[in-house]
Write a structure and sequence with these properties.
It contains 19 helices and 6 strands. The strands form 3 sheets. Strands 1-2 form a two-stranded antiparallel ribbon. A two-stranded antiparallel ribbon has the order 3-4. A two-stranded antiparallel ribbon has the order 5-6. It has a single domain, classed as Orthogonal Bundle (Ammonium transporter fold), CATH 1.10.3430. It is an all-alpha fold and 489 residues long. The protein is globular, with a radius of gyration of 24 Å.
Length: 489
């Protein structure tokens, strides 16, 4: 019986090494991760902030998604996953050529040898082309950048943000990605960061907190009262974020293998458990459940399980969810209010607590709960196990601590240098006038036709954009209700 054309391996577009199932899953996973940012976080950010910052917050995420992609294919990908240059950095080069992109993926691109010449960590070759890997990891870089933006919403100069995005990607994100994933010193040392607890969440949380410090706070009125302008739409963005995480952790094994569905199941278990624990604590402490609190609990559960999603058992995912729903809750609701330093830094969406604290917690728990058999399926370093499984597990926990300290230190220093350099040319914070007005002053656009925030419209303060139509007249004085025009019929 003849073989159907779709399964033949001698077609020009189907080389012998290509596994169509792996290739299809990797592109699907990449799309799911991309949807977390665009439109997921774009919608969530636009909805969770005060009405006057809806457009600006959405635009910061939208711009980052596009800018990261271009920088990624021009130089970023091969700094993060290319041939080794330094223990924490690879040689940068474009990922644009046909020969490079349709060839078989290589992760990492450098084989690591012992001093005696024996192979320590081989170069892995997934059964799909390099283009799939380049795009998959672009979506990771993009969401990291957008998560970071959550710390500086409502006051960072949009021009400073536009300059910050490519610089942070190249000099900060790529270092963590190469060190832990691309064949750097932490990868070969055996540190586990399954899908980005350190590379993404700890990095975004620490850099976001650092950026919030240097950019400065929002207006006092915004800090005191910053209600979400659309809670239901916020939940739609949060839902895209949660469901997209199946691609986030499910695509990390670089194959549609047995680890992928386990990681997806663990991801959802941790998120659900964390949400329930966070909500329970809200009810116990504040007397009523909070929708925003539930979303924050969901995020901490997702961030916490990410560094170990494919190497821990399902019961461990419940443990991770319980701890990620309580420890970040305590750091945000109790510790933050008692710390003068934490209160001084205006972290708009509490990215430090929901991502840095949760990501760090997940990395450390992975050092305790990583199951030996699951580790042996996908990890390049043999005989890896968590401390709870005896043997050399205690060493893994120590490695997880060292890796976290490296990521924290690098992100603080690099983010500070980048922002201080930008500040020489562009103010990091908007002017007080722009901060008073919001989107209309920064973009000349507003999210809704309705005038809100409980204010009366003041044309002398906000200006009037006239019309060519003689039927439209400028509103006079202070007008209650919607901002609009008067039409003489």
């Amino acid at each position: 019986m003849s073989i159907p054309g779709a399964y033949q391996t001698d077609l020009p577009a189907v080389p012998p090494w290509l596994n169509k199932g792996d290739n299809a899953w990797q592109m699907t996973a990449a799309t799911l991760v991309g949807l977390q940012s665009m439109p997921g976080l774009v919608i969530l950010y636009a909805s969770i902030v005060k009405k006057k910052w809806a457009v600006n917050s959405a635009f910061m995420a939208l711009y980052a998604f596009a800018a990261v992609l271009i920088c990624w294919v021009l130089v970023g990908y091969r700094i993060a996953f290319g041939d080794k240059l330094l223990p924490f950095w690879a040689k940068g080069a474009p990922a644009l050529g046909q020969k490079y992109l349709i060839g078989r993926a290589r992760v990492p691109e450098t084989t690591h040898y012992y001093s005696n010449g024996n192979i320590e960590s081989p170069m892995l070759e997934p059964f799909y082309p390099m283009a799939a890997h380049v795009y998959f990891h672009f979506t990771f870089a993009a969401i990291t950048m957008i998560l970071l933006a959550g710390s500086v919403l409502g006051r960072m100069n949009i021009k400073a943000w536009m300059a910050f995005v490519p610089l942070w990607l190249i000099f900060c994100y790529t270092v963590g990605a190469f060190s832990l994933w691309g064949g750097g010193f932490l990868y070969h040392w055996g540190v586990i960061d399954y899908s980005g607890g350190y590379v993404i969440h700890l990095s975004a949380g620490i850099s976001g907190f650092t950026a919030a410090y240097w950019v400065g706070p929002r207006l006092k009125s915004d800090r005191e009262r910053f209600p979400p302008n659309n809670v239901l739409l916020m939940l739609a963005g949060a839902g895209l974020l949660w469901m997209g995480w199946s691609g986030f952790n499910g695509g990390a094994p670089n194959a549609a293998n047995v680890t992928a569905p386990l990681a997806v199941l663990n991801t959802n278990i941790s998120a659900a458990t964390s949400l329930l624990v966070w909500t329970t604590l809200d009810v116990f402490y504040f007397g009523k459940p909070s929708v925003i609190g539930a979303v924050q609990g969901m995020m901490t559960g997702l961030a916490c399980v990410t560094p170990g999603a494919g190497v821990v058992q399902a019961w461990a995912a419940i443990v991770m969810g319980m701890l990620s729903g309580s420890i970040p809750w305590f750091s945000m609701m109790i510790l933050h209010k008692k710390s003068a330093f934490l209160q001084k830094v205006d972290d708009t969406l509490a990215v430090f607590h929901t991502h840095a604290v949760a990501g760090l917690l997940g990395g450390l728990l992975t050092g305790l709960l990583a199951e030996p058999t699951l580790c042996s399926i996908i990890l390049p370093v043999s005989n890896t196990r968590g401390a709870f499984y005896g043997g050399n597990g205690g060493m893994l926990f120590l490695k997880q601590i060292v890796a976290a300290l490296f990521i924290i230190g690098w992100n603080i220093v690099a983010t500070t240098i980048i922002l201080l350099a930008i500040r020489l040319f562009i103010p990091l914070r908007m002017s007080d006038e722009q901060l008073m007005i919001g989107d209309d002053a920064v973009h000349g656009e507003e999210a809704y036709a309705l005038w809100g925030d409980g204010e009366k419209y003041d044309p002398t303060r906000h200006g009037w954009h006239g019309s060519d139509s003689p039927q439209e007249t400028i509103p006079t004085g202070f007008v209650n209700g919607a901002r609009g025009v008067t039409i003489n019929l």
